[in-house]
Amino acid sequence: MPDPDEVAPRRSLPAWTTTPVPLGAALLAVVASAVGGTVVGTNLPWGDVPLTVERGTALLQEPSNGLTSFEGDDGTVIGLDADALLWSAESEHGEGRPPCLREGREVAVELGYRWVGLPDGGSSLTPVWVGC
Questions:
Q1: CA angle (84 as vertex; 82, 74 as ends), nearest 5
Q2: Helix (H, G, I), strand (E, B), or coil: what is residue 122?
Q3: What is the pLDDT of residue 45?
Q4: Looking at CB atoms within 10 Å, which of 12, 27, 92, 114 has the fewest?
């Protein structure tokens, strides 16, 4: 049986664990990671997928919360939050409720939307843009 008072000899660590990393190499790794993340992030499908644009009429139902209904020329009916859209009207562009929407009045518009895939395999229609 080994003697409990005896100290085991120390083993030396492999060279790769004790070699300091030069500061330049560490900075290069950080910059390369940032550039790589930017390239991957800007090329993900969400960022550069074209919208489906449909013509129809929009009706602001409830001004207090932006509830708006859209009926496409093909009969598609979509409920949306007009306060959460990008919009363009003639030479103006903005974010939030489009200026052409008035309570109780149907307005001819174009609606830009896209289908977003969900983790459970389904999909959801997401309105993004209104053109007045």
A1: 50
A2: coil
A3: 59
A4: 12
Q: Tokens 């903005």 identify what position? A: 94
Tens of pLDDT, residue by residue over 101-110, are: 988 899 999 9
Distances (CA, A) of 79 to 39, 99, 128: 35, 18, 12
Distance CA 65, CA 132 (A): 20
Strands (E) located in 63-132: 67-72, 77-81, 86-89, 92-95, 106-117, 123-131
**pLDDT tens-digit readout, 76-96:** 898 999 999 999 988 888 998
CA gap 66, 96 in Å, rounded: 9
pTM over 0.90: no
Tracing tokens 């993004």 back to the chain, one arrives at: 128
DSSP letter string, 17-74: HHSPPPHHHHHHHHHHHHHHHHHHHHTSTTTTPPPEEEEEEEEEEETTTTEEEEEETT
Phi–psi pair at 4, nearest 5 degrees? -65, -20
